[in-house]
Amino acid sequence: MNQYLYDGTPEGLVSAIASILDSGENPEEAHLAVRQDMLFEEGLFLRTDSAFAEALFERLRQRAPDAVQTLWYFMMAEADGLETSLLRYIALAFEHGDRVNGYLTHTSVKAIVGTARKAGRELHRMKGLMRFEQLRDGAWLARMEPDCNVMHPLARHFSRRLRAQEWFIFDARRRSAAHWDGHDLSFGTLEQFSRPELSLEERAVQQLWQTFFKTIAIPERKNPRLQQSNMPAKYWKYLTEKQGE
């Protein structure tokens, strides 16, 4: 089996897959992994070529648009160790078109589609779990720590839903941020934009909401297992109603 290495970036991954497929290599006989810079590391290093990566995306978009969507979600999952599976999935997508997502008996297809679905579920969940807090300057801030890197599609979603407000979304796990100024959407780190503080009114409203949430709760009907099934505890950290519990 031929060993191939790439630089560990999403663009580098797609570029490497394009190189392998264009070489005529049998994807079932190739192995792709991130270069670790070890002294005796074996494998051919494939340099990142942005044009090569974009060309593969375009060809795949024409042949299997649903597979491109799956690839997009897969990249958000930031999964480790599935590079070879992705290589084989894309090769099958070129061969079979969008029918590839139905070939779940194939180990690589099952791994890629399953990982992509995980990212899609988390993106959908975060759209309903975001809590925006008003800052002293009148802007709004929402914080999160998702397993998957859903920042870009989530920010685009809220740029349509909250067009009239200025807001920030901060991913504490990745130290990344999105900023909507009412007209344009930009990405960076929270420190690049501002050092936000909650307004006094926001603190008061949060206290009222926490009190209301506790007051309406019926102890006899409390079902922690069901609650965590619908809203996993890992997301509670930034939910206003769960603060102070």
Per-chain topology:
Elements: E1 2-6, H1 10-22, E2 30-34, E3 44-45, H2 50-63, H3 65-77, H4 83-96, H5 107-129, E4 132-134, E5 140-144, H6 151-161, E6 167-171, E7 176-180, E8 185-188, H7 190-193, H8 200-216, H9 224-230
Parallel strand pairs: 1-2, 1-3, 5-6
Antiparallel strand pairs: 4-5, 6-7, 7-8
Overall 3D shape: elongated
Please state the average pLDDT score: 85
In terms of structural class, how would the helical and strand content be classed? Answer: alpha/beta
- Which H/E pattern describes the elements? EHEEHHHHEEHEEEHHH
N-C termini distance: 54 Å
Would you identify the regions where 5 or more consecutive residues have pLDDT less than 50?
A: none
Cα-atom Rg, whole angstroms? 22 Å
The number of helical elements comes to 9
Largest sheet: 5 strands, mixed
Percent helix, as a range, is 40-55%
Question: Per DSSP, what share of the residues sits in E-state strands of 2 or more residues?
Answer: 5-15%
InterPro entries: DNA_repair_put, DUF4130
Organism: Chlorobaculum thiosulfatiphilum
Protein name: DNA metabolism protein
Domain DUF4130: 83-241
